C-alpha cells in the first residue's frame, strides 16, 4: 500500500527537496482554530516556520487576520497577502528602523506593530514616527524567563514613564515569548507557562491601569500553546503547527497536528552491506541539533551516523534493500530552519507533484 507521503511522479523531482502537502496544512489550520474554540482573535500565528505567501493566504482564507513574524521581509510577505494585522516580534535597530518606516508607508492597508523593550528603542521609534508624520504601534516585550529579549517586570514602571512622553507612539499591549519551555511532560509545561504568564499578566495590569485604551496580550510559542490556548484574554503565537515536525511530535504529543512537510532524499552510494549514503547533507536539513536530525518514514532501520555538507551516511540492516537511486522520505527534527534552506518547495496534491511554491521570505529583503 502507498503511504500518504509517497509521490507517484517522483522522477520529476530532483533531490534533496522539501515536499508540502496542502490538505494536511489545511487540517492543521483548522485544528489550531478548534483549540481556541474557533475564536480567531485568540491566535496570532508566527510565520517564521513557513515563510511562504501561499501558506499565509491559506490562513487568511481560513479567517485568521493577525500574524507574528521575525523579519521585515516576513512582514512584507504578509502585507502582500493582504494580512490586516502584523506584529514584528523583533526590535528594529540601525538601518532596519528606516526599512520599518518604508514598509509602513508602502502598505497602508496593513496595521503594523513591533516589539520594544528599552528606553532608547522607544525614543528611537518615536523619532522615526515623527519623521514620517505617523503614530506607530508597538507592544512592550516582557522577559518571561528565557533571558533573550524583553524587559524585566522591575523595569516596567520606568519604561511606562518613557512611553507616556512619546506623542507619536501607541502602546497596543504586552508580548511575552516563553521559548525556554520544552518539557515533554504536559503538566510541567503548564506550570512553567503559568509562572511566566503571571509576570506578563502583572505587566499588563500595571500598564492597563495607566493606559486610556484597551491593551492586548500576545504570548507563547508551540510547546506552551497547550496551556495558553485555555486563556480567554490572550492571542497565542504558535508557528510550527502549520507543518509540524518530528521534534514537536515527540515533545508535545497532546497537540495532534499532522506532519505536512517531508524531505525527499535518494541513495547515492552503497558503501558496504550495512552502510549507504544519501544526498541529505546539512545544507538540506537543519543541523543545529545532534544526529539523528531526521526520522525516515520508509526506512525504519536507517540510522544516521555521519553528515557533511552534501552527504548523510546511514547504517541499515541490509544495504541490498537500498540500491542506488532509492527514494527515501524523512521528517526533519526541526522544520523551521529546514524550510529556510530551500528557495522553493514541491507541492504534492493527490500523490502527484503539482507545482512549486517560493519560500520568498527566506530572503532578508523583498522590495524594502
Automatic annotation (TrEMBL):
SUPFAM superfamilies in UniProt: PLP-binding barrel
Domain D-serine dehydratase-like residues, every copy: 260-349
Pfam short name (any one): D-ser_dehydrat
Superkingdom to which the source organism belongs: Bacteria
InterPro entries: Ala_racemase_N (IPR001608), D-amino_acid_metab_enzyme (IPR051466), D-ser_dehydrat-like_dom (IPR026956), D-ser_dehydrat-like_sf (IPR042208), PLP-binding_barrel (IPR029066)
Record GO terms (molecular function): D-serine ammonia-lyase activity
Key words of the record: Lyase
GO biological process, one term: D-serine catabolic process
Family: Belongs to the DSD1 family.
Name the UniProt record assigns to this protein: Threonine aldolase
